[in-house]
Amino acid sequence: MPPQTASYPQPPFSTATVLLIGSTGMGKSTLGNFLLDPDEEHMCENPAFAPGKGSRPMTQEVKVASKKVQIEGHGRVELTIIDTPGLNESPSKDLSHMIDIIKKLNECREIRACIFVVKFNAKIDAQYKATIKYYSKLLPDLFERNVIIVMTDFKTDKDSKQQRKRQCLNVEEVKCDTIDELCKCSNNQIKYIPQLFMIDCFAMYDEKETSKKERAAILDYIFELRPIKVKSQKVAKTDYIKNKDKVEHQKLQEEIKRKNDALKEDYKHSEAALNDTQKKKKEIDDLENDIDNFREALLDKNTDENVVAAHQSINVSSFKIESPYEITSYDTWTNGSYNFTEIVQTSQIIQGNVVGEFMLGIYASVTAYTHKKLKYQDEIKDLNDKIKEKQNRLNKCTEEWKKFKKSHTDKEEEIKLLEKYINERKAAARRCRLDFMTVEDAVKRLKELEEEEKQQEQEEEDDEQEEEDEDGEELDD
């Protein structure tokens, strides 16, 4: 049995979306109609899904229908059914169906159940197996717990029961065999025994009530399942596309190898030149760094900020301070018992007298100041010379670098284009290895497949015409 989702507390709900899966002739459209409305007028005269006629399937595209249905304990709620076409028609049709399904799923945002529709005692053909395999990859979460099997065309009247008895058909064995075979096709996604229902959508007489009760049981079960989110769903690749991508991946790998070999040759031929470019660029960076450092030191020293030019502590009655730099200002200090008199300042000398009673110790001092740019003028000149020398070297180096770059523009551009092309091929190769593709990529692939099929049809027509022409020539002879 599947997980007991019915035992979990369920939030209030008003809608449920159900996906019908099955191959041609299994009764998907008929079951969809019956679940939406079992009324005879709806089933026969105005069905939501037109059933197929004979062996020709009516579901040739994805169809969606919604209707309010009565659910015991929940009143009337909206049921949306997505009727899907079977796969293995043609590569382009299969992909077209998948694109439509993904668009519908993304619109619905969540799916409450996936119903495998199979006619009672019918053979599970290759189309059915391929369809289940595809959807199990597309919706693994849904397959892990929300799969239901409905066997259609199961008649419960007395004559049908007698006929099954004469044919030695064991209903329980058919059910078990069907469940086992369907689960095998699911990429090991179904690790439980799905709930199975049996129904006859066109039952007659008293059997109509039996079918309606089974319908009610199916709907009750569906609405007890927890919905699965399907937002931003991607398109799972069909086996045909995966096989094409496998071949394409091999071609891309071979092409990438050839281009990489060509790229290595380009690198080899220009390796010395590229190394010279890198060395030249490093030299430029070093020169620019040196110039920046010199300019920073120059900005620090080439200012009018006052710095000490000379200092003298005084313990005598007269003083004279000589500075190697031009004196811009000075400060005096005493301990409060002395006074400075007759101070005279020239460009590089400060002299004067100190009045007071001198004893042992320091009782006064004079500090002469000059501008930084005056004190460090030799260093400033040296820095300017270094900046000029480095700038000349930088200009020369930059010209050499520009000249080299100009002479090798074509080669470098070729390398860039080759690298870009290789990266694009690598990205394409990675996409070939993926099991899914975006809707946009799927639409592109669909156009390619349609063009291929159109070309193939044209070639077949040309071959047939050529054979007819040859047969006509033989008759003339």
Automatic annotation (TrEMBL):
Domain AIG1-type G: 17-155
Molecular functions (GO terms): GTP binding
Start-end of Acidic residues biased regions: 449-477
Pfam family, one: AIG1
InterPro entries: G_AIG1, P-loop_NTPase
Stretches for region Disordered: 447-477
UniProt keyword list: Coiled coil, Nucleotide-binding
Positions in coiled-coil regions: 242-304
Family, as annotated: Belongs to the TRAFAC class TrmE-Era-EngA-EngB-Septin-like GTPase superfamily. AIG1/Toc34/Toc159-like paraseptin GTPase family. IAN subfamily.
Name recorded for this polypeptide: AIG1-type G domain-containing protein
Lineage: Eukaryota, Metazoa, Porifera, Demospongiae, Heteroscleromorpha
